[in-house]
Amino acid sequence: MNFPRYIAIEGPIGVGKTTLTRMLAERLGAKSVFEEFSDNPFLRDFYADRERMAFQTQTYFLVARYKQQEALRQHDLFARGIVSDYLFAKDRIFAYLNLDEEELSLYEKIYELLRPRLVKPDLVVYLQARPEVLLKRIKMRGRDMESPIDSAYLERLMRAYNQFFFHYEETPLLVVETSDIDFKADRLQLDSMVEQIRRAKAGTLYFVPQA
């Protein structure tokens, strides 16, 4: 079967991007690429005081993501595919959500300098979940730095993601509702997901797994 050579998994915090990336890479025999969020020295303070630390956090992520994505240009996608647990373009979701007007103006200048050099995915898989589900999953994994995250922030984040992908046209897009499914526990659902990925050749395709 023919599959996209470069797949990016996206969605808000707690939706299961990393888990699905790992599982798909194993299933497809692809290289997995994971966002290096824990290396950001500003992230812990950002969760505690988002307004004060937003620009430092966002700029660090932008540059770090660029460096990691730049390395993908050297990767032979025809020899072995890639499954990544983030999409570089999603960086702007958080910028518009967290930065003030002056910070955003400077951020956009940096972003536009970096973006043209990067390789676009062949397919983006956008994972959705209800805010209360995201909050439950975040609490279950128990990362100390994420403890200040509340449902109000997750609701804002989910709206921002939905708005971004409603207008997204750069690549084929597969939208997956994950609120009531666990791909790790249900391999039949993973099989269905793989089939949807194979079919996603153009435009936007929606997949709602049956619990």
Which fold name is given in CATH as the topology?
A: Rossmann fold
Taken in chain order, the helices and strands follow as EHEHHEHHEHHEHE
Number of helical regions:
8
CATH superfamily: P-loop containing nucleotide triphosphate hydrolases
Number of domains: 1
Main sheet attributes: strand count, strand direction, barrel closure? 6 strands, parallel
Question: Radius of gyration in whole Å, from Cα?
Answer: 17 Å
Overall helicity: 40-55%
Order of strands, widest sheet: 2-3-1-4-5-6
Q: What's the architecture in CATH terms?
A: 3-Layer(aba) Sandwich
Oligomer: single chain
Strand content: 5-15%
| CATH top level label | Alpha Beta
Question: Which blocks of ≥5 consecutive residues have pLDDT under 50?
Answer: none
What structural category characterises the helix and strand content?
alpha/beta
Question: What brief labels describe this structure?
Answer:
single chain; 211 residues; alpha/beta; Rossmann fold; 6-stranded parallel beta sheet; 49% helix
State the gist of this model:
The chain is of the alpha/beta class.
Descriptive report:
This protein has 211 residues and is an alpha/beta fold. The chain has a single domain (6-207), classed as 3-Layer(aba) Sandwich (Rossmann fold). Helices cover 49% and strands 12% of the residues. The chain contains 8 helices and 6 strands, in the order βαβααβααβααβαβ. It has helices at residues 17-28, 43-48, 50-72, 91-98, 101-114, 131-141, 151-166, 187-199, and strands at residues 6-10, 31-33, 82-84, 123-128, 173-177, 204-207. A 6-stranded parallel beta sheet has the order 2-3-1-4-5-6, covered by helices on one side. Strand 5 (173-177), helix 8 (187-199) and strand 6 (204-207) form a beta-alpha-beta unit. Helix 3 (50-72) runs antiparallel to helix 4, helix 3 (50-72) packs parallel to helix 5 and helix 6 crosses helix 7. The longest helix has 23 residues, at 50-72. The chain starts with 5 loop residues before the first strand and ends with a strand.
